[in-house]
Amino acid sequence: GVYGLGDSLADGFEGGARAAAEAGFQTVEGLLPKALSRLEEPTLALFQVPHEKNTARAPKQFVDLQNDVTAAAIELATREGFESVEHVKRYTALGFGTDQGKLGNVNGLAIAARSLNVTIPQMGTTMFRPNYTPVTFGAVAGRHCGHIFEPVRYTALHQWHLKNGAEFEDVGQWKRPWYFPKSGEDLHAAVKRECKAVRDSVGLLDASTLGKIDIQGPDTREFLNRVYTNAWTKLDVGKARYGLMCKEDGMVFDDGVTACLADNHFVMTTTTGGAARVLQWLELYHQTEWPDMKVYFTSVTDHWATMTLSGPNSRKLLSEVTDIDLSNEAFPFMTWKEGLVGGVPARVFRISFTGELSYEVNVQADYAMGVLEKIVDAGKKYNLTPYGTETMHVLRAEKGFIIVGQDTDSSMTPDDLNMGWCVGRTKPFSWIGWRGMNREDCVRDQRKQLVGLKPIDPNKWLPEGAQLVFNTKQAIPMT
C-alpha cells in the first residue's frame, strides 16, 4: 500500500485519470497537489512515558486515575510475586473503579507484562463487572418493559376474586377487582346491579389495598397535628377521624381515616396509590424538620386484609359472625371495636365511603380467606353482592366523597374542594401547607371549584375525561 501523504495524492491522481480514460473520456495533464513525502511508521505503543530514574524513584506516574494506582505499585506487585493478572489487580486495586478498568487497564497490563518479561497478550486481561458499557435509558425507563418491570401486588382475597369472575384494574401496583360481571353483562350492567345491591341490601368490597401506617410514640398526636390540616389532640381512644394532608404549597396531597388505638398509638390509612409516598413523606419531615419528636412509623398494609360490608343490611349480616355489639349506642359512626369475626380476632371500623351503613373488617391477612367464607355464607340470605372499584366510584360520587388523584390534580386546596371544614385554622402550631394555602393566589376570588354534574337524561353518562364547553366550535380548553 501507499502510506505517505504525497505518494497517496499522486496515486489517487493517477487512478482518477486511468478511470476517466477507461470510461471513454479524454484525459488532460493537471497539477498534482504538493505535499511532503516522509516515511510513515506504525504507531508507537507508549504505555509509560520513559524517564532516567527507576520507576519507584521517579515522580509518580498514575495509571488508574480512579484508585490512584501508580506504575511503581504495579512493578512492586510483580516483585512481590504476584504474576497472575487477577492477583496484580487485587494487590493494586487496578480496574476496581466505576470504569472497571476502561481508563487505565491497558497501560497497567502493559507495565505488568514488561515487568514480568512477557507479552501483553500473555499477561491476559482482568474480569470486569457489569455495567462495563453504558446502559441506555430505554432499558430502565417507560412502562412498556413487560410484566417484570414492576412488581404486581395481590390482596389476600385475590383467589376468591378470580373464582368469582372479577375483572381487574391496576391501582398503583395492586390488582384490584374492577367489577364482577355475570353472564352476558358488560361493565355498565354489572355496575348498575352492584350499586343497587349496596343501596337495597349489602355489598362486599375488598379494601385491603388502602395504605396502613402504624404510628406510635409519645409525640404521635402532635405529629399528626402538623401533617394533617385538622386537629388531633383531643381524639379519644376508640374513635377515628378523617384527615387531609397538604404539601407545603397548600395543595391537597393525600387523605384518609386515622384511628386512635391507644393514647400514643394510631393507625393511619392512605390512598392505595399513595401509601409508599405518604410513609416516605412522614419519615422525611420527622428526620429533617422535627427530629426531636419521639414518633415511629411502620407500614402494615400487607399485614391486614380489609373487607368492607356496606348497605342497610350490613349490621344484620355482620352480627351473625361477630361477638361485637353493633348497636348505634355501643358502636357509633367513626369509631372502632376489637372482637371476633368468624372466630378470628379483628378490628372493625364503622366508616362509610358509600353513604350507607358500613363496617370495615380488618383481620390478619393469613386468616382472611377463612373469615371471608364465613361472611359469604352468612350473607346468602341477604343477597350479599361483591362489588369492585367502579361501583365504589359511583357510590362515593353520589355521596359527594372525593378521591385524591382522580378529583384532584395537585393544584387544588381544601377550599377548592369545598372542604374548608377540614382545615384547623386555629391550631397553635403551623402545619404543613398552612402558609402556602394563605398565599394571595390561593385565597383570591373565582378560583376553580370542584362540583358534581348530573346528566339531564339519567340513562346517559358523561364520558370520562370529557370537557365542558360553552361553544362546540371553540378550541379546548376554554378560558
UniProtKB/TrEMBL annotation:
Chain ranges of the GCVT N-terminal domain: 157-426
Domain SoxA A3: start-end pairs: 59-142
Keyword Oxidoreductase: yes
GO molecular function terms noted in the UniProt entry: oxidoreductase activity
Keywords, ordered alphabetically: Oxidoreductase
Name of protein: Sarcosine oxidase subunit alpha
InterPro entries associated with the record: BFD-like_2Fe2S-bd_dom_sf (IPR041854), GcvT/YgfZ/DmdA (IPR028896), GCVT_N (IPR006222), SoxA_A3 (IPR041117), TrmE/GcvT-like (IPR027266)
UniProt entry tagged with the keyword Oxidoreductase: yes
